[in-house]
């Protein structure tokens, strides 16, 4: 049975935050799903590999219309990084709770299951080792590679990730429930001034990298009242008239920056959150 477009979109939304390119192990042979993902998620590197032939660890595992035993689900955990997700969709299932129990019994955490129009979509996460704090968990996922670089707005399309993430100060800094339809909200994105650049917008190719950087900057007192991260398409970012400092390390910024700048940005140009 063909999978509905709405279900394909839901499957594509389930992938975890990752580095610029998400490594996906696709266990199914559904050409329709693979073609949809290749079109919608250009930041995904899809591996179609038999488990017996792989020894690497992936950000996510996808299985569509496959019935997996308890032992197979348990085996799959060794191929997921900490915080990685297994995403399953089965058109022959009709009980979300039973599907969720399968993942829970196999040792997955943060299990979610929902009934879609044409099947059950369920997912779980590989647990983190030990009792890591939230900041430590983010750092595990962030994978602080030495890939910081300065790029112009005209070169943004060359970046591999679909979106770029920037740090935002929101004024007023109020929870949603305290705002009214008359509340005027202003967004300002974080940039730095250096001896060579009057403005360098701090940007990141993945949400974990942005969160890890912001957490450290707040703890060290480098930033104040910056508690939001916004996601922008590369097309939107290319219209900005400022260069970007991409995937910087906190220590590097501390050495480079002569001051912190806040640049007003239209919040309506940001992308809606995937989750």
Q: What descriptors fit this protein?
A:
alpha/beta; elongated; Rossmann fold; 2 domains; 275 residues; seven-stranded mixed β-sheet
Helices and strands in order:
Layout: H1 5-13, E1 22-26, H2 31-40, E2 44-47, E3 58-64, H3 70-76, E4 80-90, H4 96-105, E5 109-116, E6 119-125, H5 134-142, E7 149-151, E8 163-171, E9 186-193, E10 200-204, H6 207-219, E11 228-233, H7 234-237, E12 244-246, H8 250-256, E13 259-265
Parallel strand pairs: 1-2, 1-3, 3-4, 10-12
Antiparallel strand pairs: 4-6, 5-6, 7-12, 8-9, 8-10, 8-11, 9-10, 9-13
Helix pairs in contact: 5-6
Return the domain count. 2
Mean pLDDT: 84
Distance between the termini: 27 Å
* Most strands sheet: 7 strands, mixed
Proportion of strand residues = 25-35%
**pLDDT under 50 segments (min length 5)?**
137-146
User: Could you give the count of β-strands?
Assistant: 13
Order of helices and strands: HEHEEHEHEEHEEEEHEHEHE
Could you characterize the architecture of this molecule?
This protein is α/β, with parallel strands linked by helices. The chain has two domains: 5-125, 3-Layer(aba) Sandwich (Rossmann fold), CATH 3.40.50.150; 134-269, no CATH class. Helix content is 25%, strand content 30%. The protein is built from eight helices and 13 strands. It has helices at 5-13, 31-40, 70-76, 96-105, 134-142, 207-219, 234-237, 250-256; strands spanning 22-26, 44-47, 58-64, 80-90, 109-116, 119-125, 149-151, 163-171, 186-193, 200-204, 228-233, 244-246, 259-265. Strands 7, 8, 9, 10, 11, 12 and 13 form a seven-stranded mixed beta sheet that branches. The protein has a six-stranded mixed beta sheet with strand order 2-1-3-4-6-5. A hairpin with a 6-residue loop joins strand 9 (186-193) and strand 10. Helix 5 packs across helix 6 (207-219). The longest helix is centred in the last third of the chain and has 13 residues, at 207-219. 32% of the residues are buried. Residues 137-146 have low confidence and may be disordered.
């Amino acid at each position: 049975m063909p999978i509905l477009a709405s279900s394909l979109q839901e499957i594509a939304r389930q992938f975890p935050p990752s580095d610029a390119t998400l490594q996906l192990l696709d266990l199914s042979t559904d050409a329709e799903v693979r073609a949809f993902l290749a079109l919608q998620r250009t930041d995904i590197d899809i591996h179609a590999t038999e488990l017996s032939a792989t020894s690497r660890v992936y950000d996510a595992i996808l299985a569509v219309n496959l019935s997996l035993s308890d032992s197979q689900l348990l085996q799959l955990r060794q191929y997921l990084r900490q915080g990685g997700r297994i995403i399953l969709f089965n058109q022959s299932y009709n009980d979300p709770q039973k599907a969720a129990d399968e993942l829970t019994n196999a040792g997955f955490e943060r299990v979610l299951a929902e009934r879609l129009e044409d099947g059950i979509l369920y997912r779980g996460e590989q647990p983190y080792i030990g009792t890591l704090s939230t900041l430590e968990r983010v750092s595990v996922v962030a994978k602080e590679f030495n890939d910081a670089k300065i790029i112009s707005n005209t070169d943004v399309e060359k970046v591999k990730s679909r979106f770029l993430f920037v740090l935002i100060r929101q004024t007023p800094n109020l929870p949603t429930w305290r705002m009214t339809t008359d509340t005027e909200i202003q967004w300002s994105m974080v940039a730095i001034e250096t001896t060579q650049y009057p403005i360098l917008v701090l940007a990141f190719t993945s949400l974990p990298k942005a969160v890890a950087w912001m957490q450290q900057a707040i703890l060290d007192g480098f930033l104040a009242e910056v508690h939001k991260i916004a996601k922008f398409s590369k097309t939107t970012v290319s219209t900005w008239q400022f260069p970007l400092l991409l995937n910087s390390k906190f220590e590097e910024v501390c050495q480079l920056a002569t001051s912190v700048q806040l640049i007003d940005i239209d919040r309506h140009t940001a992308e809606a959150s995937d989750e």
